[in-house]
């Protein structure tokens, strides 16, 4: 009897043990399979060629979008510096006049010698800028040169005389417009013996109604007011005089419209405020130009060294806007 019970129990236990052994083998095989396949799983998780191309395309697209935005932000920052420079120069221009009995500083960049009779002999008229800025070999050369112009005592920072977007090699990019005691322009000044008066050593401006065309004193700025008469303009390059016609609707060949501030320019008015003008006409921006060598740096001039007359309504608007700001009115 006891033998039969033991035999029956052994028959019951054997399937259980076999089941446990089979389950263990299955687990072992499964774990072995996972271990062998794990490297192939890691390979599957890496980027495929198509995925890499997609990522590169997305990055290129982002760069194409961001670069113009960054360039615009950079230009606006540089324009802000340029406007600040113009404001400081104009405040110096006003301060000079206030300390010299309202006489406006010479709008010519460099000094000139006036040789006259009538007891005045030889006189020297100091330009507003000075030859220290005339294409120096280096920044230190400007510092060492004492000839920095009549406004240097008021603005003793070399960087203020140059726009950050100015042409390479040009250490001064701002010019005084013709009407602010600058270069003589046909139809804007009185003809005197010898060309200048004995007291001011400059040409007196003609008066048309209540508007004085060529300004030699602050007190002459009445109609239009100081907020509408231009003083400095950023040419983006060195020019000892910025010439604006009065009698004719055309641009002077050595003074093309500046376009380096996103198809526009910056300028200051006699009351000290500054403005940014974006040219309205594509003709103004795309006017034919050429580079002309001045020592080592280049200067931009109108093509063929010829004056240019606008052919479109917008182009004429841009020119006349600057002529009105310069002379207070049109002369034609």
What fraction, in percent, of the residue positions are helical? 25-40%
Output the helix-strand order. Answer: HHEEHEEEEEEHEEH
* Beta-strand proportion: 5-15%
Global mean pLDDT: 85
Largest sheet: 4 strands, antiparallel
Strand order of the largest sheet: 3-6-7-8
Counting structural domains, the number is 1
- Helix and strand composition category: alpha+beta
Question: What is the number of helices?
Answer: 5
Cα Rg? 39 Å
- CA distance, first residue to last residue: 140 Å
Low-pLDDT parts are 32-38
What's the count of strands?
10
Shape by Cα distribution: globular
Brief overview:
This protein has 332 residues and is of the alpha+beta class.
3D structure, described in words:
The protein has 332 residues and is an alpha+beta fold. The chain has one domain (62-327). Helices cover 36% and strands 12% of the residues. It is built from 5 helices and 10 strands, in the order H-H-E-E-H-E-E-E-E-E-E-H-E-E-H. The strands form 4 sheets. A 4-stranded antiparallel beta sheet has the order 3-6-7-8, with helices on both faces. A two-stranded antiparallel ribbon has the order 1-2. Strands 4-5 form a two-stranded antiparallel ribbon. It is globular and about 90 Å long. The N and C termini lie far apart (140 Å). Mean pLDDT is 85; it is low at 32-38.
